[in-house]
């Protein structure tokens, strides 16, 4: 049994936690006066009661963003860059408090929360620099009396709907390029983790963004507020990270206004260990990719494929590493595995494990609830494609392992999914590395690497894992319109 570690709590001044929404430069309660509770998944205790905005409150936030857009759009790029740099510096200055807030409301272990602050801030720094590089083009004209130019302009009001598993970084990854491009934003964080989002809004206010440029709407009415963000014609871009099912719904709701969309949706990431792999490196990569945030990440490994030649060696070393993981409240800095986010998440993990065992899977390690929302890190063997865990994201600390014999076989099975976000493989054969990387149907490939996310590279998927790319030099494109100017009568 893996014991739950007693927590040595890091104190946070709850009086300083923001609980009102931030609209048009002011902190506001919901017009109805309603609030909803934010629950610490590690303890079950309510951390705070947050303003519960509705569709009308959201419309007011959109109106404020729309009114603020022309003046902000016309700010020189250097001034927008300076505002973003101030925000970046403030995020790092408040790193410990932001990390503690994240751990308290989503259960992520504190060391990972600190890493997320750095990761999230890196997007603000990157796009502060990219704000000055939204170059256009001069096109050679087909006639001497014409001149043809392409310019890029901000798209307008941007709505973002972000997930609970990365409460800070999924906001900055969307908002930073929008602000850099000259857009104004309305942020809708998840009801599970609004406190980190409100803390970010407070720092944006301190950085000096003008009223109406940065707005944060907190709500428990995800459907009603999401529908308003999708159908309101003043919103010209929607960026969403979450499940494929919800992404499809939002896409249909955006159809009436033909919004530009970025959708970062579900995944079913394969992790392949070939017979010539460095097994110790593969185990390290599997651990960081599978068990980060208790297995609750969109690029988390969902299926492990290990070549028959190295299967026993990998499983022995992998099992030993999993058995060493410490489970408990994320505020304890010795813990590597925190709680699942809620009962719904826990029940999904339990259901997937039970289904796999019923269909012949073997539990190599773990396989049970320790207490509350803490699930024991688990390894399953003898996995078949008929099991639910082979077809769906488990979103928990469970690693199902397949055997395979040939490269062709494993590529076929790895690609046999509706999803295409991330994949990983380990091999020391350079020819195989190129072949497999090109053959895998996904937007991101980790080759001898289990941790792939960075602000400088494009993040996004194909197939039912979504549309668009976030981060990198490509990350500005979805927040800008390309305009062609044709000058005639030039002699």
From TrEMBL:
Q: Where is the active site?
A: 264
**A biological-process GO annotation:** gamma-aminobutyric acid catabolic process
Keywords recorded for this protein, A-Z: Oxidoreductase
Any one Pfam family here would be Aldedh
Query: Could you tell me one molecular function GO term of this UniProt entry?
Result: succinate-semialdehyde dehydrogenase (NAD+) activity
Domain (Aldehyde dehydrogenase) spans: 27-484
The family note in this entry says: Belongs to the aldehyde dehydrogenase family.
| NCBIfam families named in the record | SSADH
Name of the protein: Succinate-semialdehyde dehydrogenase / glutarate-semialdehyde dehydrogenase
Q: Which organism is it from?
A: Parapedobacter koreensis
């Amino acid at each position: 049994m893996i014991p739950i570690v007693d927590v040595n709590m890091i104190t946070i001044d709850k009086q300083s936690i923001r609980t009102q929404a931030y609209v048009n430069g002011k902190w506001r309660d919901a017009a109805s006066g309603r609030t909803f509770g934010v629950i610490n998944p590690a303890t079950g205790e309510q951390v705070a009661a947050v303003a519960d905005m509705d569709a009308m409150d959201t419309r007011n936030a959109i109106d404020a963003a729309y009114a603020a857009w022309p003046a902000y759009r016309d700010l020189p790029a250097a001034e927008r860059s300076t505002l973003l740099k101030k925000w970046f510096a403030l995020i790092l200055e408040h790193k410990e408090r932001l990390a503690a807030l994240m751990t308290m409301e989503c259960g992520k272990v504190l060391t990972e929360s600190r890493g997320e602050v750095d990761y999230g801030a890196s997007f603000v720094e990157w796009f502060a620099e990219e704000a000055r590089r939204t170059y256009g083009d001069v096109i050679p004209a087909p006639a001497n009396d014409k001149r043809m130019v392409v310019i890029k302009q901000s798209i307008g009001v941007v709505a973002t709907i972000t997930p609970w598993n990365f409460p800070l970084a999924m906001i900055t990854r969307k908002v930073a390029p929008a602000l850099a491009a000259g857009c104004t934003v309305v942020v809708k964080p998840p009801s599970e983790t609004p406190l980190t989002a409100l803390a970010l809004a407070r720092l944006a206010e301190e950085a000096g963004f003008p009223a109406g440029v940065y707005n944060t709407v907190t709500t428990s009415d995800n459907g009603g507020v999401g529908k308003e963000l999708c159908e309101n014609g003043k919103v010209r871009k929607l960026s969403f990270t979450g499940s494929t099912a919800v992404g499809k719904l939002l896409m249909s709701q955006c159809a009436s206004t033909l919004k530009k969309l970025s959708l970062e949706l579900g995944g079913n990431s394969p992790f392949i260990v070939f017979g010539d792999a460095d097994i110790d490196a593969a185990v390290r990569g599997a651990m960081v990719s599978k068990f980060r945030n208790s297995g609750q990440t969109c690029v988390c490994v969902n299926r492990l494929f290990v070549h028959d030649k190295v299967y026993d060696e990998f499983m022995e070393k992998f099992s030993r590493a999993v058995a060493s993981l410490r489970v408990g409240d994320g505020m304890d800095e010795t813990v590597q595995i925190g709680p699942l986010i809620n009962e719904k998440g826990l029940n999904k993990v339990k259901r997937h494990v039970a289904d796999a065992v019923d269909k012949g899977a073997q539990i190599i390690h773990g396989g049970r609830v320790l207490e509350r929302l803490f699930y024991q890190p688990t390894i399953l063997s003898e996995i078949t494609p008929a099991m639910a865990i082979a077809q769906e994201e488990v979103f928990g600390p469970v690693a199902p392992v397949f055997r395979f014999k040939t490269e062709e076989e494993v590529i076929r099975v790895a690609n046999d999914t509706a999803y295409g976000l991330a994949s990983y493989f380990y091999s020391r054969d350079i020819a195989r590395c190129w072949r497999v990387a090109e053959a895998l149907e996904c937007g991101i490939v980790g080759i001898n690497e289990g941790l792939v996310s960075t602000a400088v590279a494009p993040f996004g998927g194909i197939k039912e894992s979504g549309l668009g790319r976030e981060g990198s030099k490509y990350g500005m494109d979805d927040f800008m319109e390309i305009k062609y100017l044709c000058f005639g009568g030039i002699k």
